[in-house]
Structures are given as C-alpha cells and as structure tokens.
Amino acid sequence: MAKPRRSSISRELELEHPIEDIRHEAVLNVIRTANVLSLQGAALFRRFGLTEAQFNVLFALKYKKQAWTQSDLGKRLVVTRASITSVLDKLERKKLVLRASVPGNRRIHHVELTAKGRVLVDEVEAVYRASIHRALAAFSEAQCRRLIGGLERLREGAARL
Length: 161
Description:
By secondary structure, the protein is mainly α. It has a domain at 50-159: Arc Repressor Mutant, subunit A (Orthogonal Bundle), CATH 1.10.10. It has helices at 8-12, 22-46, 52-63, 70-77, 81-93, 115-135, 141-159; strands spanning 68-69, 97-102, 105-113. It has a three-stranded antiparallel β-sheet.
C-alpha cells in the first residue's frame, strides 16, 4: 500500500501526519491561500493608511453607477450596519468620502467619494492590481477562469450546508 504523500499544505502548516482526505486538503488550501492574500493585502493597504475594509468601500464607490446609501454599500460589501458606519466614519474623517443628505428623508444619506478619495483609490488600485498580477503570474487567463469557476462551485456547495 502506497504511503500518503505529504502535500505542500501539510509542510506549510507543519503537520506531523499527511492529510488523508483530499476534500479537507482542498479546503485547507483555500483557507490558507485566502489568509495569505489577506495578509499581503493588509500590508499593501497599510502603506496608504487604509484597512482592507476601507479600500473595499473606496473601490466599490469608484465603480458604482448610481447613488448608493450607506445601507446599499453595506449589503454589497456584506458587512453589518455597525461595521459600515465605523468604516465610513473613519473615511469621512480622512476626507475620502462624504455622506450627502437625501432630500425628503433625513435618515438616509448617499455616500460619495471626495476628490481626495478618488485620487487615493486610483493610486492604491494601480499598486493593488500590479500585486494581483504578480501573485497570479503563473496562471494563464484560461486557468484564472477555471479557478474562478471552481471557487464559485465551492461557494455554492458551502452555501448549501
């Protein structure tokens, strides 16, 4: 009987025994990869005085086509109302976004990038995209599409749990 191979994730996590369940190994690889990407992203954003959540808000606002309320933004970024409020408060203090009153409804505000916010998100996005391209340099476009498809199927399967 063949000895189970010791995968790179087993070595990376310094596991003493090989992972015997290929699906468990696949999930560990996805989680480990997401963590590595998140740590690298956090370091990149920190260079610009931002958190990952703050960058995600700026990025989303840059590409929106219509007015978004704070609630709209929270739904798109899948964060709690309290979290989006905190992130927007910090971005507003940095003068990167502004919340504009909606005529006829004092409880709702549209969220917009300021000129300073647009300049910053453009600068960070260029560095961010270059980093992503370096991270995925070994992947062809076709391989990227297959990866996306596989991850979409994984999310669908996880959502059915």
